[in-house]
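Private note to self, pasted from the team thread so I don't lose it. Backbone tokens:
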């Protein structure tokens, strides 16, 4: 109910009118993922992780009512994680109705192409899918329940369907190794055409998170309240440890080379800069009846164009939607061309060397975004 707010705006007169206001809306509380696997750094939902969600029909009716009453089409869902049922039964319905809403959501990252398409058609213009890392080991350390492949799939289809992604790369976790940094440094240039993270840095140790409640299990030592608190509160009168939400900490063992850490931060800043400067990097493919052309401008100073025919072109298409194993590729290609492992392997290697395919645990995914806008 925003009646008081709008009443005040009316009282303030002309100067307060005309802005395109965003209404906050809450469809659910708690976290259905955190109920089973509490992400180790997450301090949200202190009172109860138990997930409680309004039915999609109720959300639909309430959004319609708020929109009607306040003449607003911009909504920010404050849910920590949306109910997966909202994808088809809320955003799917808004899409069927051809509504032109502008909605922000937070969600889990393992979304399929079809789901991102529905969200976009239903009015999601920006989302925060909690990607957090491009390293499998770090994602496991966080108990995030997602893989780098799923994060990349999410970034690619969000770009294709024009959904802005708000995400960060978190670092400094217990269990990290130099290898996690090397892998991300190696991967990032392949992803320059996708939306870069907004920020990177060491994770904040938050009250109520597993790192806070069971620090010894992770080799974490809490050394005091976050540095900012002493500038806000008088430490002689307030026990900062009691009021703090985030804390300074050290790890018993963090074998990461600080230069490597800086190198990764610099690589991410470079990625952000490329997108800020307007000369946005690109990687897309266009399809002709018998071949595929890849336009690669991930290095905007040296864009390239390369044509792929036969099985190579087929592989690019087969692996377009989601990661596929060698077996899945062979099954999909089998009635179109000869696809023995001996023929397929060098093609996969070539596509990976050109950074057109990303490989993870035996699955291959096309990084290039299709030019065709009807998929
Ligand atoms: S980070 Fe997100 S998904 Fe993980 S427990 Fe917290 S709210 Fe849930």
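Design output:
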């Amino acid at each position: 109910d925003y009646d008081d707010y709008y009443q005040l705006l009316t009282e303030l007169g002309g100067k307060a009118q005309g802005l395109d206001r965003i209404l906050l809306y809450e469809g659910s509380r708690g976290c259905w993922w955190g109920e089973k696997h509490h992400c180790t750094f997450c301090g949200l939902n202190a009172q109860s992780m138990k997930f409680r969600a309004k039915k999609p029909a109720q959300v639909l009716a309430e959004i319609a009512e708020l929109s009607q009453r306040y003449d607003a089409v911009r909504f920010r869902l404050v849910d920590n994680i949306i109910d997966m049922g909202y994808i088809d039964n809320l955003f799917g319905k808004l899409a069927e109705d051809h509504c032109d809403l502008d909605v922000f959501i937070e969600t889990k990252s393992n979304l399929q192409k079809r789901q991102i398409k529905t969200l976009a058609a239903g009015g999601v213009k920006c989302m925060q899918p909690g990607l957090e890392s491009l390293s499998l080991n770090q994602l496991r350390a966080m108990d995030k329940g997602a893989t780098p492949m799923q994060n990349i799939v999410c970034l690619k289809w969000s770009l294709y369907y024009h959904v802005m992604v708000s995400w960060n790369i978190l670092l400094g976790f217990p269990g990290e190794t130099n290898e996690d940094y090397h892998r991300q440094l190696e991967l990032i240039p392949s992803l320059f055409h996708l939306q870069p993270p907004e920020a990177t840095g060491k994770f904040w140790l938050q009250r109520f998170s597993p790192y806070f409640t069971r620090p010894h299990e992770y080799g974490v030592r809490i050394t005091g309240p976050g540095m900012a608190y002493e500038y806000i509160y008088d430490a002689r009168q307030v026990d900062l440890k009691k009021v703090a939400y985030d804390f300074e900490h050290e790890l018993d063992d963090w074998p990461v080379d600080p230069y490597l850490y800086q190198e990764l931060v610099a690589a991410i800043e470079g990625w952000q800069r490329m997108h800020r400067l307007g000369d946005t990097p690109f990687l897309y493919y266009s399809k002709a009846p018998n071949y595929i052309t890849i336009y690669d401008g991930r290095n905007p100073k040296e864009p390239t164009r390369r044509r792929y025919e036969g099985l190579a072109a087929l592989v690019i298409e087969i692996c377009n939607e989601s990661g596929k194993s060698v077996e899945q590729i062979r099954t999909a290609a089998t009635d179109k061309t000869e696809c023995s492992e001996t023929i397929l392997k060098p093609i996969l290697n070539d596509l990976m060397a050109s950074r057109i395919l990303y490989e993870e645990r035996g699955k291959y995914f096309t990084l290039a975004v299709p030019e065709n806008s009807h998929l």
